[in-house]
Amino acid sequence: MLNIFFIKILEFIYKTVNFLRRRIEKSEKVSGKIVVSVGNIGFGGSGKTPLVIGIARALKEKDIIPAIFLRGYRGEKEKEGGEVLSSEPLLYGDEACLLKRNLPKLRIFVGKDRVKNMKKIEDKRIKVFLLDDGFQYFGVKKDVEIIIFDKEKKPFLRRDFIFEIRKADFVVKANKNYDFSFHYSVKGVYNSLDKSEDDNKIFVAFCGIGNPESFKKTLQDNKILFENFIVFPDHYEYKEKDIKKLLSYGRSLITTEKDFVKLEKYGIKELYYLKIETVLSEKFKKEFLEKIEKELKL
Question: What is the mean pLDDT of residues 44-67?
Fold first, then answer.
């Protein structure tokens, strides 16, 4: 009980610091570009990166080319920054590699100093800068602020006071029949699993993400059978001993796509991942693209 009390005190201090920084720090305006931030006010996964992928694809459909910027958490390039040129999680971080895997033709940059990376872009065809997890980044002035928030889903810890969502241009929910949803399919290193042909396949499920329960629920909702569910720390860097332990269960393995990018190098034959395809609601897509076109004066 005391531990929870102290955690909540630390949470309040953290939120207060962000409250002050948001109002005191001077944000730099990036000339000639539209900066779009996708973020949330809680800790842990809420669908930010899949939403960024969905938004990037929607922009490309309109021939509006974006570039994507994120911190590259725990990657070797996190401090100095740089462009993501390959799928190397140790170098760029797992989320950056997930983005590159899904958007191979777009330019993606990692680094704490996102403004520094933005200034590297001289390509005039790139009109929009997308910030993955950008709500708590104060270094750049944002033209469009998108916050993922569902009042029915209360995170244990928050990075901002709830009233800060008033600063958003769009407050969206990730769920069926809301602003964006997900279509799931099971894929593997060597093949795809056709559930209609193999409904009785039982997996060992595992993940190293901020909200493992969401992955577990998604497996259950999609009627994917598993007999073990193993949780590793968020952004976990898997070791050979972990792989041996997972394989010792004698079952096919299933994990998230974010974890998969770190495991692909091992060439595990019976390793599958839950592939997420982001589906934007027509209402959100229409209103968002109209705002971007207005900002770009198209």
Answer: 92
